[in-house]
From TrEMBL:
Residue stretches in coiled coil: none
UniProt-listed SUPFAM superfamilies: Galactose mutarotase-like (SSF74650)
InterPro entries, A to Z: Aldose_1/G6P_1-epimerase, Gal_mutarotase_sf_dom, GH-type_carb-bd, LacX
Protein name: Aldose 1-epimerase family protein
GO BP terms: carbohydrate metabolic process
Upper taxonomic lineage: Bacteria, Pseudomonadati, Pseudomonadota, Alphaproteobacteria, Acetobacterales
Gene3D superfamilies reported for this sequence: 2.70.98.10
GO MF entry, a single one: carbohydrate binding
Amino acid sequence: MTDTHRFGDSRLAATVSAAGAELSSVRDGAGGEWLWQAGPAWPRHAPVLFPLVGRLPGDVLRHGGREHRLTQHGFARDRAFTWRARGEAGCALRLVDDEATRAAYPFPFVLDLEWAVADGTLSCTATVSNPGAAPLPFSLGAHPAFAWPLPGAASAEGHAVRFPGLDLPALSARRLSGGLLDATETIPLAGGSLPLHQGLFDADAIVLPDFSGRRLRYEGPGAALEMGWEGYGDLGLWSKPGGAAFLCLEPWSGTTPPLGWDGDFAGKPGITLLEPGASRAFRWWIRPERA
C-alpha cells in the first residue's frame, strides 16, 4: 500500500508520498486535478532532484580520487523518506545518508521537505543540512509536472508561460546533448510570453541557467498557475519530446554540466558548497486560478 498523506482545505488539497517525498496530486475546490497523473508517457509526478540535477558524464561522480556511480537526477526521488509530521495543513519528511547513499555520494547529509497549503497556495520548502566535517557539494531541484491542457481547457492550444516583471524579448536557453549542456538557443517571446507547442521540446528540455526571474505564470484558456521560488537560481522547462499532456516547471539550484566537463564533483559548474554545520533552505510555491 502506498504511504501517502492528503492535506489542505476547501480551496486546495494536495497529496504527498513517503516514496521520494513526491507530490502526487493537487486538486482545486471544484475537483480539478492540476498535476500530471504519472501516465505511460512519463511515470512520475513531481520528483525531488538531489544531490544532482541532470546527469554526470558516464554517470560517474569523481571525488577525492575515487569514482562512484550516481545516475541522472540523483537518488532522493527513489528513496523512502521518514515522516516527521502530518497534519491537516501539511506534512514534513526527512532523508538522511546511509550506506547505500554513501556508495553513490560519499557525503553525510540531511534533506528535509516541508509541504503546506494556506490561502489557496501550495508551498514546498527543502532544507539541506551538512552534519559532516567537510564542505557538502550538492545540487537540488524541483521537477513538478502540471496538466497540459490546464483544468477546464478544451485542448492544449492557447497555453503560454509568462514571466511577470521581466522585459525580455527572448530567452537565452541551453539545450542538451546526451543529457549535458550543449549549444545556446535564442527562443523568441511574444509580448513577454512563451507560446507553448509540443515541437518546443523536440530538442528536449529548455534550460535557463542563472535565470533572473523568480516568478512565472503558466496560462491557458480559463485557467492559470502562478509559481514562485526562493533560493533556486536556475529554471528548466520540459515536456516529453514527441508530445505528452504535461508541462514541467522546474526551479533548480544547479544544472547538468556542460559537454566536455569531467572533473571532481565539488568543482562542477553551478555546484553549491555547504559548510560543515550549516543548512540552506529552498522554497517554491504554486497558486492555481480559475477564470
